[in-house]
Amino acid sequence: MAKPKQVVKEGRNEKSAPTAEPAPAPGPRPAPRLLERYRREVVPALMARFGYRNVWQVPRLEKIMVNVGLGEALQDAKALDNAARDIAILTGQRPVITRAKKSIAGFKLREGNPIGIKATLRGERMYAFLDRLVNLALPRVRDFRGVSSDAFDGRGNYSLGLSEQLIWPEIEYDSIDKVRGLELTIVTTARSDDEARELLRLLGMPFGRS
Known about the structure:
The protein is α+β, with helices and mostly antiparallel strands and 210 residues long. The chain has four helices and five strands; from the N terminus they run αβαββαββα. Strands 2-3-1-5-4 form a five-stranded antiparallel sheet.
């Protein structure tokens, strides 16, 4: 009886597929250039001028508040959405609705009615916003001659009113429903208006003549 033939399977001598190397972990994101300028140039300049003993005494930005009043929101609910979209583009974060704290019969305003929107910026986002404000937005103001150097509140905080959102290049005319003004409040840790004024000047705020 013939023995069954043994079947031998020949293995293929194939090169193994190359293994993809893992992508390198992303490095830390670089700090906004205005924050780097504050650390490298502004801090030493302020210490030299005001005689601070250490860097912890040097004034710094604490927050920037962006506010938009929307009286038309009582009759037009879409005004809130449209303004919120614009502010989100400018600030990089979603704003919150501000509401009336009390009723005013003469204006047909009830407590809790939406009357505007606001966004509060801190940290790196705050510095990035201020950089775009002083270097991109304000130079686009028609007949711009600098901002007021007197709009401080006596506690080192600065207020700036802007007549329209279109001075920011990110906002296109065809994308808005109407031109709206906005109010900026720059809060600092400065102990006096003079210190705050010098801080903002060194950061690039284009103050005009008083």
